[in-house]
Amino acid sequence: MSDILAIVEQADNDAQLVDEIARSHPDRVTVLVENGSDGFSDAEPVRDRALRERLMRLRATIEARTGAVITGLVGSRDQLRGWRFDRVVTAGGAPSFG
């Protein structure tokens, strides 16, 4: 069983992120979006709606391409305390192990 933490960064890197995830052949993926917002606030509804739509597309693409289950979407590393991942991937860098 392979657990991956995928860190979402710039929107123009989503395809590269999915490529990195697919190379890891995960069974489960947790997606971390560290952007200062949980993506579901009332303060910036247009930006938050765009983020929700982006995450829905990203989730569907990851599931279709890898067959992995998305175990969660989180907005902060604090939410992941105590969690262990076999690999941490980002679009811009080499995968690391967690």
Largest sheet: 4 strands, parallel
- Helical percent range? 25-40%
Strand content: 15-25%
The H/E string reads EHEHEE
In the predicted model, the low-confidence regions spanning at least 5 consecutive residues are: none
Overall body shape: globular
Report on this model:
The protein is an alpha/beta fold and 98 residues long. The chain has one domain. Helices cover 33% and strands 22% of the residues. The chain has two helices and four strands; from the N terminus they run E-H-E-H-E-E. Strands 3-2-1-4 form a four-stranded parallel sheet, covered by helices on one side. Strand 2 (28-33), helix 2 (45-66) and strand 3 form a beta-alpha-beta unit. Helix 1 packs parallel to helix 2. It is globular and about 40 Å long. The two termini are 15 Å apart.
